[in-house]
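so the lab meeting is tmrw and i was supposed to have these ready like two days ago... anyway. pasting both below. for each one the top line is the aa sequence and the line under it is the C-alpha coordinates. i havent really looked at them closely yet so no promises
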Amino acid sequence: MTGFLTTHVLDTMHGIPAENMQIELWRLGETRHLLKTVYTGADGRTVQPLLQGEEFRQGRYELTFAVWAYFAALQVELPDPPFLDIVPIRFGIADATAHYHIPLLVSPWAYSTYRGS
Protein backbone atom coordinates (compact mmCIF):
# COMPACT_ATOMS: atom_id res chain seq x y z
CA MET A 1 0.00 0.00 0.00
CA THR A 2 1.34 3.41 -0.89
CA GLY A 3 0.45 6.62 0.85
CA PHE A 4 -0.37 10.00 -0.57
CA LEU A 5 -0.12 13.71 0.18
CA THR A 6 -3.06 16.13 0.20
CA THR A 7 -3.70 19.70 1.31
CA HIS A 8 -6.49 22.20 1.60
CA VAL A 9 -6.64 25.90 2.39
CA LEU A 10 -9.26 27.73 4.42
CA ASP A 11 -9.57 31.53 4.26
CA THR A 12 -10.23 32.44 7.90
CA MET A 13 -10.73 36.13 7.08
CA HIS A 14 -13.84 35.39 5.02
CA GLY A 15 -14.78 32.01 6.52
CA ILE A 16 -14.59 30.20 3.18
CA PRO A 17 -12.38 27.70 1.33
CA ALA A 18 -9.52 29.51 -0.45
CA GLU A 19 -10.32 28.99 -4.12
CA ASN A 20 -7.63 29.50 -6.77
CA MET A 21 -4.63 29.76 -4.43
CA GLN A 22 -1.33 28.79 -6.05
CA ILE A 23 0.64 26.08 -4.25
CA GLU A 24 4.11 24.84 -5.13
CA LEU A 25 5.48 21.51 -3.95
CA TRP A 26 9.25 21.24 -3.53
CA ARG A 27 11.45 18.26 -2.67
CA LEU A 28 14.29 19.24 -0.35
CA GLY A 29 17.72 17.67 -0.34
CA GLU A 30 21.12 18.90 -1.38
CA THR A 31 19.18 21.08 -3.80
CA ARG A 32 15.60 22.34 -3.75
CA HIS A 33 13.63 20.78 -6.63
CA LEU A 34 10.20 22.02 -7.78
CA LEU A 35 7.91 19.01 -8.27
CA LYS A 36 4.70 20.80 -9.28
CA THR A 37 2.58 23.92 -9.18
CA VAL A 38 -1.15 23.54 -8.57
CA TYR A 39 -4.18 25.67 -7.70
CA THR A 40 -6.95 25.02 -5.22
CA GLY A 41 -10.50 24.45 -6.41
CA ALA A 42 -13.80 25.81 -5.09
CA ASP A 43 -13.51 23.61 -1.97
CA GLY A 44 -9.98 24.88 -1.19
CA ARG A 45 -8.46 21.52 -2.16
CA THR A 46 -6.39 20.38 -5.08
CA VAL A 47 -8.11 18.18 -7.66
CA GLN A 48 -5.59 15.35 -7.25
CA PRO A 49 -3.30 14.36 -4.38
CA LEU A 50 -0.02 16.29 -4.53
CA LEU A 51 1.97 13.07 -4.33
CA GLN A 52 0.84 9.49 -4.79
CA GLY A 53 2.07 6.19 -6.17
CA GLU A 54 5.76 6.06 -7.06
CA GLU A 55 6.10 9.84 -6.51
CA PHE A 56 5.23 9.45 -2.84
CA ARG A 57 8.36 8.55 -0.91
CA GLN A 58 10.23 9.31 2.28
CA GLY A 59 12.00 12.63 2.41
CA ARG A 60 11.77 16.30 3.22
CA TYR A 61 9.40 18.55 1.35
CA GLU A 62 8.10 22.10 1.28
CA LEU A 63 4.72 23.49 0.28
CA THR A 64 4.62 27.19 -0.56
CA PHE A 65 1.26 28.94 -0.54
CA ALA A 66 0.82 32.23 -2.47
CA VAL A 67 -1.15 34.00 0.25
CA TRP A 68 -0.59 37.61 -0.81
CA ALA A 69 -1.63 36.93 -4.42
CA TYR A 70 -4.78 35.15 -3.21
CA PHE A 71 -5.94 38.04 -0.99
CA ALA A 72 -4.89 40.65 -3.57
CA ALA A 73 -7.07 38.89 -6.17
CA LEU A 74 -9.99 39.26 -3.73
CA GLN A 75 -9.20 42.99 -3.54
CA VAL A 76 -8.40 42.86 0.17
CA GLU A 77 -6.64 46.09 1.12
CA LEU A 78 -3.13 45.05 2.14
CA PRO A 79 -0.10 47.06 3.23
CA ASP A 80 2.92 47.32 0.93
CA PRO A 81 4.79 45.14 1.54
CA PRO A 82 2.15 42.72 2.83
CA PHE A 83 2.63 41.06 6.21
CA LEU A 84 2.33 37.59 4.62
CA ASP A 85 3.38 36.91 1.05
CA ILE A 86 4.48 33.33 0.43
CA VAL A 87 3.81 30.95 3.34
CA PRO A 88 6.23 27.99 3.38
CA ILE A 89 5.55 24.78 5.27
CA ARG A 90 8.46 22.35 5.52
CA PHE A 91 7.67 18.80 6.54
CA GLY A 92 8.99 15.27 6.39
CA ILE A 93 7.42 12.09 5.09
CA ALA A 94 8.67 9.17 7.17
CA ASP A 95 6.03 6.54 6.36
CA ALA A 96 5.51 5.95 2.63
CA THR A 97 2.32 3.96 3.34
CA ALA A 98 0.51 6.73 5.26
CA HIS A 99 -1.79 9.57 4.26
CA TYR A 100 -0.19 12.93 4.95
CA HIS A 101 -2.64 15.83 4.92
CA ILE A 102 -1.43 19.40 5.42
CA PRO A 103 -4.19 21.97 5.86
CA LEU A 104 -3.50 25.70 5.93
CA LEU A 105 -5.80 28.11 7.76
CA VAL A 106 -4.87 31.62 6.69
CA SER A 107 -5.72 35.31 6.81
CA PRO A 108 -3.58 38.24 5.64
CA TRP A 109 -2.12 38.43 9.17
CA ALA A 110 -1.90 34.88 10.53
CA TYR A 111 -1.77 31.22 9.59
CA SER A 112 -1.76 27.81 11.22
CA THR A 113 -1.26 24.26 10.08
CA TYR A 114 -1.17 20.74 11.50
CA ARG A 115 -0.91 17.18 10.26
CA GLY A 116 -4.47 16.34 9.36
CA SER A 117 -6.09 13.06 8.47
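ok protien two:
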Amino acid sequence: MAAAPAEAPAAAAAAEERELDFLNPKGERLFGKLVDTGSDDVVILCHGYVANSEMCQFPLVAAELAEAGLSSFRFDHACAIRSRSERQGPFLMGNHEDEARMRAALIADMAAAVAFMRSIGKRVVCLLGHSKGGINAVMFAARHHDVPKVINLAGRFRTREGTLQRFGADILERLARDKAIPRREPWGEWVMTEEDFLNRCNLPMEEMARSVPPTVCMLCLHGTADTTIPYADSELCASLVPNSRLILVEGADHNFTGEAAGQAMARHVVNFVLS
Protein backbone atom coordinates (compact mmCIF):
# COMPACT_ATOMS: atom_id res chain seq x y z
CA MET A 1 0.00 0.00 0.00
CA ALA A 2 1.30 3.45 -0.87
CA ALA A 3 2.38 5.72 1.95
CA ALA A 4 0.16 8.63 2.92
CA PRO A 5 0.98 11.96 1.24
CA ALA A 6 3.49 14.15 2.98
CA GLU A 7 2.16 16.99 5.13
CA ALA A 8 3.88 20.32 5.56
CA PRO A 9 5.42 20.62 9.04
CA ALA A 10 4.35 23.53 11.21
CA ALA A 11 7.84 25.00 10.92
CA ALA A 12 10.93 24.03 8.99
CA ALA A 13 13.55 22.39 11.16
CA ALA A 14 17.27 23.11 10.92
CA ALA A 15 18.66 20.67 8.37
CA GLU A 16 21.75 18.53 8.89
CA GLU A 17 23.65 17.41 5.78
CA ARG A 18 25.75 14.28 5.89
CA GLU A 19 27.34 11.91 3.42
CA LEU A 20 26.07 8.34 3.34
CA ASP A 21 26.90 5.33 1.21
CA PHE A 22 25.13 2.11 0.34
CA LEU A 23 25.60 -0.90 -1.91
CA ASN A 24 23.64 -1.69 -5.04
CA PRO A 25 23.06 -5.34 -6.01
CA LYS A 26 26.22 -5.42 -8.13
CA GLY A 27 28.24 -4.62 -5.03
CA GLU A 28 29.07 -1.09 -6.18
CA ARG A 29 29.30 1.40 -3.35
CA LEU A 30 27.21 4.48 -4.14
CA PHE A 31 27.70 7.79 -2.34
CA GLY A 32 25.09 10.42 -1.63
CA LYS A 33 24.06 13.30 0.61
CA LEU A 34 21.20 13.19 3.05
CA VAL A 35 19.78 16.59 3.98
CA ASP A 36 17.97 15.62 7.15
CA THR A 37 15.43 17.98 8.71
CA GLY A 38 14.39 15.40 11.29
CA SER A 39 11.29 14.61 9.25
CA ASP A 40 10.59 10.98 8.45
CA ASP A 41 9.52 12.04 4.94
CA VAL A 42 12.30 11.99 2.37
CA VAL A 43 12.50 12.79 -1.35
CA ILE A 44 15.10 10.90 -3.40
CA LEU A 45 16.80 12.83 -6.24
CA CYS A 46 18.30 10.84 -9.15
CA HIS A 47 20.54 12.49 -11.75
CA GLY A 48 20.78 11.88 -15.49
CA TYR A 49 23.21 11.00 -18.27
CA VAL A 50 26.83 12.21 -17.89
CA ALA A 51 25.92 14.00 -14.67
CA ASN A 52 26.09 13.64 -10.90
CA SER A 53 24.01 14.54 -7.88
CA GLU A 54 25.40 18.08 -7.62
CA MET A 55 24.08 19.06 -11.07
CA CYS A 56 20.68 20.22 -12.36
CA GLN A 57 20.03 22.46 -9.36
CA PHE A 58 19.78 19.46 -7.04
CA PRO A 59 21.44 21.34 -4.14
CA LEU A 60 18.84 24.10 -4.60
CA VAL A 61 16.00 21.57 -4.69
CA ALA A 62 17.35 19.99 -1.51
CA ALA A 63 17.52 23.40 0.18
CA GLU A 64 13.95 24.26 -0.82
CA LEU A 65 12.69 20.90 0.39
CA ALA A 66 14.50 21.46 3.69
CA GLU A 67 12.92 24.91 4.00
CA ALA A 68 9.56 23.14 3.74
CA GLY A 69 10.65 20.70 6.44
CA LEU A 70 11.28 17.76 4.11
CA SER A 71 14.41 15.63 4.08
CA SER A 72 16.10 14.68 0.79
CA PHE A 73 18.69 12.20 -0.41
CA ARG A 74 20.64 12.71 -3.64
CA PHE A 75 23.14 10.13 -4.77
CA ASP A 76 25.49 9.31 -7.63
CA HIS A 77 24.68 6.33 -9.82
CA ALA A 78 27.56 3.98 -10.59
CA CYS A 79 27.93 5.64 -14.01
CA ALA A 80 28.01 9.19 -12.62
CA ILE A 81 30.85 11.41 -13.81
CA ARG A 82 33.33 13.03 -11.39
CA SER A 83 31.97 10.88 -8.59
CA ARG A 84 33.22 8.72 -5.73
CA SER A 85 30.60 6.07 -6.48
CA GLU A 86 32.15 2.81 -7.61
CA ARG A 87 31.72 1.43 -11.11
CA GLN A 88 32.26 -2.17 -12.06
CA GLY A 89 32.61 -2.24 -15.81
CA PRO A 90 32.51 0.50 -18.45
CA PHE A 91 30.38 3.63 -18.65
CA LEU A 92 27.09 2.85 -20.40
CA MET A 93 24.71 5.22 -22.11
CA GLY A 94 21.69 2.96 -21.58
CA ASN A 95 22.00 0.82 -18.46
CA HIS A 96 18.42 1.67 -17.50
CA GLU A 97 17.70 -1.83 -16.23
CA ASP A 98 20.62 -1.74 -13.80
CA GLU A 99 19.58 1.69 -12.56
CA ALA A 100 15.84 1.14 -12.12
CA ARG A 101 14.70 -2.46 -12.00
CA MET A 102 13.80 -4.91 -9.31
CA ARG A 103 13.52 -8.58 -10.24
CA ALA A 104 13.08 -10.93 -7.30
CA ALA A 105 15.96 -10.10 -4.94
CA LEU A 106 17.71 -7.84 -7.46
CA ILE A 107 17.09 -4.26 -6.43
CA ALA A 108 19.24 -1.85 -8.43
CA ASP A 109 20.24 1.75 -7.90
CA MET A 110 16.90 3.53 -7.53
CA ALA A 111 15.22 0.72 -5.64
CA ALA A 112 18.36 0.22 -3.54
CA ALA A 113 18.29 3.91 -2.56
CA VAL A 114 14.63 3.59 -1.57
CA ALA A 115 15.38 0.50 0.50
CA PHE A 116 18.37 2.21 2.11
CA MET A 117 16.32 5.22 3.17
CA ARG A 118 13.70 2.94 4.67
CA SER A 119 16.40 1.03 6.54
CA ILE A 120 17.36 4.22 8.40
CA GLY A 121 13.77 4.99 9.31
CA LYS A 122 12.76 7.29 6.47
CA ARG A 123 9.48 7.20 4.54
CA VAL A 124 10.08 7.77 0.83
CA VAL A 125 7.25 10.05 -0.29
CA CYS A 126 8.61 11.00 -3.70
CA LEU A 127 11.28 9.94 -6.18
CA LEU A 128 12.58 12.45 -8.73
CA GLY A 129 14.60 11.62 -11.84
CA HIS A 130 16.16 14.19 -14.18
CA SER A 131 16.78 13.63 -17.91
CA LYS A 132 17.97 10.01 -18.23
CA GLY A 133 16.85 9.69 -14.62
CA GLY A 134 13.39 10.69 -15.86
CA ILE A 135 13.33 7.58 -18.06
CA ASN A 136 14.26 5.54 -15.02
CA ALA A 137 11.60 7.29 -12.92
CA VAL A 138 8.88 6.21 -15.37
CA MET A 139 10.27 2.66 -15.35
CA PHE A 140 10.34 2.71 -11.55
CA ALA A 141 6.76 3.95 -11.31
CA ALA A 142 5.62 1.22 -13.70
CA ARG A 143 7.28 -1.53 -11.68
CA HIS A 144 7.20 -0.36 -8.06
CA HIS A 145 4.00 0.98 -6.59
CA ASP A 146 5.02 1.78 -3.03
CA VAL A 147 6.39 5.30 -3.61
CA PRO A 148 3.26 7.45 -3.93
CA LYS A 149 4.73 10.30 -5.99
CA VAL A 150 7.23 10.35 -8.85
CA ILE A 151 8.67 13.33 -10.73
CA ASN A 152 9.84 13.03 -14.32
CA LEU A 153 12.06 16.12 -14.57
CA ALA A 154 12.90 17.03 -18.18
CA GLY A 155 12.99 13.32 -18.94
CA ARG A 156 13.62 11.70 -22.30
CA PHE A 157 10.52 9.79 -23.38
CA ARG A 158 10.82 9.27 -27.12
CA THR A 159 14.10 7.45 -26.64
CA ARG A 160 14.67 6.33 -30.22
CA GLU A 161 14.10 9.73 -31.81
CA GLY A 162 16.12 11.52 -29.15
CA THR A 163 19.08 9.16 -29.33
CA LEU A 164 19.23 9.36 -33.13
CA GLN A 165 19.05 13.14 -32.88
CA ARG A 166 21.95 13.23 -30.40
CA PHE A 167 24.29 10.88 -32.27
CA GLY A 168 23.22 11.27 -35.90
CA ALA A 169 20.71 9.53 -38.13
CA ASP A 170 23.40 7.17 -39.47
CA ILE A 171 24.51 5.93 -36.06
CA LEU A 172 22.63 2.63 -36.36
CA GLU A 173 24.34 1.87 -39.68
CA ARG A 174 27.75 2.74 -38.22
CA LEU A 175 27.18 0.59 -35.16
CA ALA A 176 25.89 -2.31 -37.26
CA ARG A 177 29.14 -2.14 -39.20
CA ASP A 178 31.63 -1.39 -36.41
CA LYS A 179 29.74 -2.80 -33.34
CA ALA A 180 31.56 -0.33 -31.09
CA ILE A 181 32.53 3.33 -31.54
CA PRO A 182 34.99 5.12 -29.21
CA ARG A 183 33.77 8.51 -28.05
CA ARG A 184 35.63 11.35 -26.40
CA GLU A 185 33.70 13.67 -24.12
CA PRO A 186 34.81 16.68 -22.02
CA TRP A 187 34.57 14.44 -18.94
CA GLY A 188 36.41 11.43 -20.38
CA GLU A 189 36.34 8.64 -22.95
CA TRP A 190 33.94 5.74 -23.37
CA VAL A 191 32.88 3.19 -26.00
CA MET A 192 29.39 3.17 -27.49
CA THR A 193 28.33 -0.37 -28.34
CA GLU A 194 25.52 -1.51 -30.57
CA GLU A 195 23.96 -3.46 -27.70
CA ASP A 196 24.01 -0.45 -25.35
CA PHE A 197 22.59 1.84 -28.03
CA LEU A 198 19.73 -0.53 -28.85
CA ASN A 199 19.00 -0.98 -25.14
CA ARG A 200 18.20 2.71 -24.96
CA CYS A 201 16.42 3.03 -28.31
CA ASN A 202 14.10 0.09 -27.80
CA LEU A 203 12.71 0.93 -24.37
CA PRO A 204 8.88 0.49 -24.45
CA MET A 205 8.22 3.85 -22.80
CA GLU A 206 4.60 4.25 -23.87
CA GLU A 207 3.73 0.78 -22.59
CA MET A 208 5.41 1.50 -19.27
CA ALA A 209 3.71 4.89 -18.90
CA ARG A 210 0.29 3.33 -19.42
CA SER A 211 1.06 0.67 -16.80
CA VAL A 212 1.75 3.16 -13.99
CA PRO A 213 -1.15 2.56 -11.58
CA PRO A 214 -3.47 5.40 -10.56
CA THR A 215 -2.22 5.03 -6.97
CA VAL A 216 1.08 6.56 -8.12
CA CYS A 217 0.87 10.26 -8.98
CA MET A 218 3.43 11.53 -11.50
CA LEU A 219 4.51 15.09 -12.21
CA CYS A 220 6.08 15.75 -15.60
CA LEU A 221 8.05 18.98 -15.18
CA HIS A 222 9.92 20.51 -18.13
CA GLY A 223 11.36 23.79 -19.38
CA THR A 224 9.97 25.35 -22.55
CA ALA A 225 13.48 26.37 -23.74
CA ASP A 226 14.96 22.89 -23.38
CA THR A 227 17.01 22.20 -26.52
CA THR A 228 18.40 18.89 -25.22
CA ILE A 229 15.05 17.15 -24.77
CA PRO A 230 11.94 18.89 -26.13
CA TYR A 231 9.11 19.46 -23.69
CA ALA A 232 6.87 17.53 -26.08
CA ASP A 233 8.40 14.40 -24.52
CA SER A 234 6.91 15.33 -21.14
CA GLU A 235 3.60 16.25 -22.76
CA LEU A 236 3.42 12.77 -24.29
CA CYS A 237 4.39 11.05 -21.05
CA ALA A 238 1.81 12.99 -19.05
CA SER A 239 -0.89 12.13 -21.59
CA LEU A 240 -0.28 8.40 -21.06
CA VAL A 241 0.28 8.07 -17.29
CA PRO A 242 -3.17 7.57 -15.69
CA ASN A 243 -2.62 9.89 -12.70
CA SER A 244 -0.31 12.64 -13.92
CA ARG A 245 0.25 16.38 -13.98
CA LEU A 246 2.18 18.44 -16.51
CA ILE A 247 3.93 21.69 -15.63
CA LEU A 248 6.04 23.68 -18.09
CA VAL A 249 8.50 26.26 -16.77
CA GLU A 250 8.54 29.14 -19.23
CA GLY A 251 12.01 29.92 -20.58
CA ALA A 252 13.82 27.20 -18.61
CA ASP A 253 16.52 25.10 -20.28
CA HIS A 254 17.32 21.43 -19.72
CA ASN A 255 19.16 22.02 -16.44
CA PHE A 256 16.95 24.90 -15.27
CA THR A 257 19.98 27.17 -15.39
CA GLY A 258 19.79 30.49 -13.56
CA GLU A 259 18.19 31.63 -10.35
CA ALA A 260 14.71 32.27 -11.73
CA ALA A 261 14.38 28.95 -13.55
CA GLY A 262 15.92 27.01 -10.68
CA GLN A 263 13.66 28.59 -8.08
CA ALA A 264 10.57 28.04 -10.22
CA MET A 265 11.43 24.37 -10.76
CA ALA A 266 12.22 23.81 -7.08
CA ARG A 267 8.99 25.51 -6.03
CA HIS A 268 6.95 23.21 -8.27
CA VAL A 269 8.77 20.19 -6.84
CA VAL A 270 8.02 21.21 -3.24
CA ASN A 271 4.39 22.06 -4.00
CA PHE A 272 3.87 18.70 -5.69
CA VAL A 273 5.41 16.74 -2.82
CA LEU A 274 3.23 18.59 -0.30
CA SER A 275 0.04 18.42 -2.37
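from a quick look at the 2nd one: The chain has ten helices and twelve strands. The chain has a mean pLDDT of 85. will dig more after coffe
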